[in-house]
Give the backbone structure.
Amino acid sequence: MPPVFISYTHDSVEHKARTHALADRLRHDGVMVVCDRDCGPGGPPDGWDKWSETQAENAEVVLLVFTVSYRRCWDGKQPPGMRRGATYEAHVIRQRIYNGGSNIDFCRVVIFDKSDMEHIPMRIASLQIFEMPRNYDNLLKWVRSFSEVVGLEMPPNDPDDVLSQQPTDTEQIRQGLLALGPLMRMIQEIRVAATQFRNDLKHAKQQLEVLRAYKDLHDGLHMLQIQCYAQIETEISLDSFPNSEEGMDNLHNYLQRLHELAYDMEQVAARESIPAKQTSWIEEELSPALQALDDALTSRDEKKLIDGVALLRAMLAIRPSTINTCLYMTAEGLQLPILVNHLRTLADEMATHATEDVMGFVVLFQQGVDRMSDLSTHLEKLVESHHAWQEVDNKLRSIAGGIPKVPNDLKRSWPMVKKKLLPLLNGKTDPYTRSLQAYAEALENALSDKGVEIHKNFRRFRHQAALVFFKINSALKAQCDKLPDLAAALDTILGMMQ
């Protein structure tokens, strides 16, 4: 997916903060973003005019954030010396649209206020217009479509690289397991042999359900952090609470989403596949935070709002990591390799006793066992990788929490971060980790040179690390989403053995 360039004007502190929040949200959702903020307070080496012109000319995907000020830049009517960067960007983008004729699909319009619709030029008024935050999901779909249209030149797949692998399809495993049913009914020796492994099948089914539950909880916390906590913190930073009605509406929307995610996690806890003590934090930590935020919005009390956010922050500092540890330990206890060995033994038993009229079921079963072996290998790699990246993410979050003392924290912590990071990057060829390697080198150089912007390099490094972790997290989720069918097939077989 190519980077997205956001072209906008610095109308006000609030407008800058909303635009930066949009950039952060896109990054959290796996989108690479180019934004002037990343150049730091010192600006780009070649100056803003050159930087703006280069980005506007080369960007494959562009978001135009229209306001009355941006329209003046678009029309070339800004007073001399004001908003020169945005004026350069608008001029180049207008020329690209003129040169492209009817092919102007590289850009879209973003607005934060409906009143800004009147400032959109007629030439691009036919493009889809995304009002933030209401149309964010549609904007994300449009941006992601460029991974298919433009794409990245991907290197050959590395068999040990989880980012290059598709999730193992469990349908063939399910069909193979279900083929065991008629074989047990028709051949007594196979039924006797299969029954010996009944406890292993039952254990695998239970552990698959536990693994899925922990992954659902981890995903819920991840979405809570991105879609709710980060957005509420942005609103607080605008210093508009409780006087801005638009800000109040946004907070109500974020809080509504927070309640939805809390309900979803409560439903996961109600499955009873995991111990109650592992989900007690939902009632003991999340519920009080929700209550505090509800009270804050009802009473328009800024102190209660800050207290509610602090409760969320404390929960998010601990729970994603503890749930990840539970997920990791559950995956270790799944013992799929042992189950695969047992099922291969059972397949050998089938070959001995099966007659020609049931060989079709035997072949299905053998193919299913082979695919289960693939699943076991892939799932083990995913969980190991997820666990390792969670540790890196925890450390980076801890360092970021020390801003503005980041340089000192980084200098003390960088050797430890580097020690955790290097094995994860070594030998990887995908573009995400290659970019992270480059950012890591730039950060290391910045730490050894006091004249270089450490904050800027750390921010870039952390954004890219978060993107890689997001990709790993998504890959594990895609695999876990396929596990319920496998658990259901195991449950069917267990029912036949009774």
In short: DSSP finds 18 helices and five strands in the chain. The domain at 4-149 is CATH 3.40.50.10140 (Rossmann fold).
